[in-house]
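[Automated response] Your request has been received and processed.

Submitted sequence:
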Amino acid sequence: MVGTQRLRGMTTRTRPFTISPIDAAELDDVRTSFVDYAGTPAVDLCAVGGEPLRCCLRDARFGEAIMLFGYRPPMPRSPYSETGAVYVHRHTCAGPADGAYPSDWRGRPQVLRAYDELGWIHDASRTHDGTDPERELEEVLAAPGVVQVHSRNILHGCFMFVAVSRR
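Generated structure:
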């Protein structure tokens, strides 16, 4: 059951899940070495604007220094492990503002790929149209056997963030 909390006289809904960007230590390694975990060189770029940044979970603004590299999301090694290109700030950033669903990505259709404890894709996986992503995440994470969900772009299949249940 989802709880509520009081915040400055308002009742707000407590999210039963946590949304996480790419781990800061892993980002520091790539920013320093300029190679991803597989030894592939990262690419320095100047943002045109709109690139989804997996370090702070927002879209890049025109002119920001960003980089592109191959990333394998955290999960047990399995036949479903995969690597894909991700954008991040070139230099350390503050990370996500508040842990909420990324506001720049609200309204953006996504694939919610659910995984079980072995790292296998779970049947609870689905797409959503972006209108109520929190509800969609809650439903997928509530399915028996789901331990994490990767949000991914529909068109390119790129990893956006990982969500896990707080239960």
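Summary generated for your ticket: The longest helix spans residues 24-33. The CA atoms of residues 49 and 99 lie 22 Å apart.
If you did not submit this request, please reply to this message.
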